[in-house]
């Protein structure tokens, strides 16, 4: 669980209680269930503080939350096979290092988000280290391997009705 916040407004002098204070909060978890629990806890804490200070609190969501991934074992198994055929190894699924709206998509249709490494160390996206890694020969090979992976996956989905049925059943069971 990660909670980040900033006071965006809260008065202009240390000895004056402001009429209004604004706080922006973002929190992340690895599942919608944990996110809901955390949201309830934050709301309860804010309501308790408001009661203690005899003031009011108001919540305004700024955007829809990013959902966790619905994992589809049938797609993951075939992905592992394809990645192995490309001479790459597949690592176990780890908790996300950031947020992505692909989780939202995964609640509506079978979805995967395979990642091909471009450097030996795991760097979070949107960092200087990751930026530098994207212009290496290893990164360019990962792009070529990724294109081959996507092509093979698309061909299998389009041409193999039994595979599509297995993927759909796997998706619905995971959902």
How is this structure best summarized?
This protein has 175 residues and is mostly helical. Helices cover 47% and strands 9% of the residues.
Plain-language structure description:
With 175 residues, the chain is mostly helical. The chain has six helices and two strands, in the order E-E-H-H-H-H-H-H. Strands 1-2 form a two-stranded antiparallel sheet. The chain is elongated and about 70 Å long.
Which strand order spans the largest sheet, edge to edge or round the barrel? Answer: 1-2
Count of separate DSSP helical elements: 6
Q: Please report the distance between the alpha carbons of the first and last residues.
A: 22 Å
Structural class: mainly alpha
**Sequence of secondary-structure elements:** EEHHHHHH
- Please provide the count of β strands: 2
Strand content: 5-15%
The low-confidence runs, each spanning 5 or more residues with pLDDT under 50, are none
Principal-axes geometry comes out as elongated
Radius of gyration based on Cα positions:
22 Å
Mean pLDDT: 90
| Main β-sheet description | 2 strands, antiparallel
- Give the helix proportion (percent range): 40-55%
């Amino acid at each position: 669980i990660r909670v980040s916040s900033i006071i965006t407004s809260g008065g202009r002098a240390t000895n004056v209680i402001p009429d209004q204070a604004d706080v922006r909060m973002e929190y992340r978890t690895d599942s919608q269930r944990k996110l809901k629990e955390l949201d309830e806890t934050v709301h309860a804490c804010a309501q308790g503080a408001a009661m203690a200070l005899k003031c009011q609190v108001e919540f305004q969501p700024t955007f829809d939350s990013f959902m966790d991934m619905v994992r589809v074992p049938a797609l993951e198994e075939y992905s592992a096979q394809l990645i192995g055929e490309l001479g790459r190894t597949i690592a176990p699924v780890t908790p996300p290092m950031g947020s992505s709206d692909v989780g939202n998509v995964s609640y509506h249709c079978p979805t995967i988000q395979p990642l091909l490494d471009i450097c030996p160390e795991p760097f979070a996206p949107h960092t200087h280290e990751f930026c530098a890694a994207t212009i290496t020969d290893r990164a360019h090979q990962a792009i070529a391997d990724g294109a081959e992976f996507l092509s093979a996956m698309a061909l299998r989905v389009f041409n193999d009705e039994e595979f599509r049925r297995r993927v759909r059943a796997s998706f619905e069971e995971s959902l």
